[in-house]
Write a structure and sequence with these properties.
alpha+beta, two-stranded antiparallel sheet, 3 helices, 90 residues
């Protein structure tokens, strides 16, 4: 199934590693460094035209590949959407 992250971006739910809240997770220096490294490597896709509220880490098609999506939709809303998708896919 798929999860809508905002704008015109949709990802496969089975590729999601984690959904993170931007405010609480970026308190950690390690997380901020990781986000900066991903940006430097060109692995960040910003789907937010507004203030970002969450980021979603997804695996790629090949081992070791990943993409980090920044979204204006809250992590709680994305989590609810992903659970809703899981329920209807049964």
């Amino acid at each position: 199934m798929y999860l809508h992250l905002g704008q015109d971006t949709v990802i496969k739910t089975d590729s999601i590693v984690g959904i993170f809240d931007m405010d609480t997770s970026t308190v950690s220096k390690i997380t901020r460094s990781y986000l900066a490294l991903c940006e430097k490597q060109g692995r960040v896709v910003n789907v937010s035209q507004e203030l970002p509220k969450s980021f979603v880490l997804c695996t790629g098609e090949h081992p070791g590949e990943f993409t980090l999506y920044i979204s204006q939709i809250s992590s709680g809303t994305l989590l609810k959407r992903s659970r809703f998708v899981d329920r209807i896919s049964l």
